[in-house]
Amino acid sequence: MPQLALDRPDDLAAAGAVLALEAAGLRALAASLDESFPRAVELMLGASGRVVVSGMGKSGHVARKIAATLASTGTPALFVHPGEASHGDLGMIVAGDAVLALSNSGETAELADLVAHARRFALPLIAITARAGSALAKAADVVLMLPGAAEACPMGLAPTTSTTMQMALGDALAVALLKRRGFTASDFHQFHPGGKLGARLLRVREVMHTGEALPLARPEMAMDRALLVMTEKSFGCLGVVATSGRLVGVITDGDLRRAMGPDLLSRRVGEVMTRNPRTIRPDALAAEALHEMNAGSRPITTLFVVDEEKELLGLVHVHDLLRAGIA
Fold first, then answer.
1. CATH number of the domain bearing residue 135
2. Longest CA pairwise span in the chain (Å)
3. Partner residues linked to 53 by β-bridges
4. Do 87 and 217 have their domain in common?
5. What is the total count of domains within the chain?
6. CA dist list (Å): 140 to 67, 136, 265, 272, 277
7. Distance between CA 252 and CA 2 in Å, rounded?
8. Does 81 fall in a domain?
9. Do residues 166 and 43 share a domain?
10. Would you give per-residue pLDDT tens digits along the chain (327 residues)?
11. Are residues 178 and 209 in the same domain?
């Protein structure tokens, strides 16, 4: 079996040339933006239905990604294949929708029926194309022009720089719409509940323990009883609450070791507890809870959850964060 050549300067040179050409295309795109961009944003923002994104070939693959990005950032969107549109899927495009059509040449024949449908029902039509005089550009309400830029393909044929610019322009539209809608991290989490991204956006209240699961004691409780509560609840700690429900201290395994002595079991919880413990708010991100656990010279494994008045609401353990994929 021939040995692979892992150090090929010609491959590296080709890669560098591709990236340089595509980067130049993106710089040219950024410099070419004009009033057409905010007009496109307004049309998409004003759609009471969805943004229908369409394109053929490589532009179609980009269109799918743009539709997915829009949908995940607060702008309802879907991809419609132009070929399928001509065979019944035009019924998916209804009053209230806006259409975003991608074609580098602006002369993609498969888009003709979809464009005609948008014009027939007076749907806003936004075009992303590189040819101002093309059929698509002439039919559109707003044209987002791609600047002249060399394709990274050495033959100048395979869509490379042009599709990179299309993709970036779609991202720009999605982010502009996100900002206009006031879309927040909490909103984002609703559409991304799974995977590492969803885990990063979890709130403490979504993973904390509450109610009977909490290891709690009053300051006046004897330590022999308090140890039984700690053992039963299995969190390795004890929350000390006043009659008002406010958290006034905690007892951890470390506190027990430091207080160890012949009179430990007869002492009161209030004498052993650590006052002013580290806590977390229920609306904090779970990732913040992990950071707080690791902060300072003594990492901890549990945090009690309190409101603004220090009233105890729950408890979060590092194992909960591990199970959620945070740590």
1. 3.40.50.10490
2. 92
3. 79, 100
4. no
5. 2
6. 19, 6, 81, 74, 62
7. 62
8. yes
9. yes
10. 445 555 566 888 889 989 999 999 999 999 999 999 999 999 999 999 999 999 999 999 999 999 999 998 889 999 999 999 989 889 999 999 999 999 999 999 999 999 999 999 999 999 999 999 999 999 999 999 999 888 887 776 688 899 999 999 999 999 999 998 887 666 666 665 555 566 667 889 988 999 999 999 999 999 999 999 999 998 989 999 999 999 999 999 888 988 898 998 989 999 999 998 999 999 988 888 888 988 877 888 899 999 998 999 999 999 988 887 776
11. no
Which domain-ending residue is among 183, 215, 250?
183
Tell me if 31 is assigned to some domain.
yes
* Rg from Cα positions in the chain: 30
Give the DSSP letter of residue 110: G
Residue 64 tokens read as 């799918």
Tokens, residue 245: 């429900």
Q: Which domain holds residue 265?
A: 204-323
Residues 35 and 167 in one domain: yes
Q: What is the pTM of this model?
A: 0.64
**Torsion sign over Cα 226, 230, 236, 241:** negative
CA distances from 90 to 69, 79, 87, 118 (A): 22, 12, 8, 9
**197 belongs to a structural domain:** no
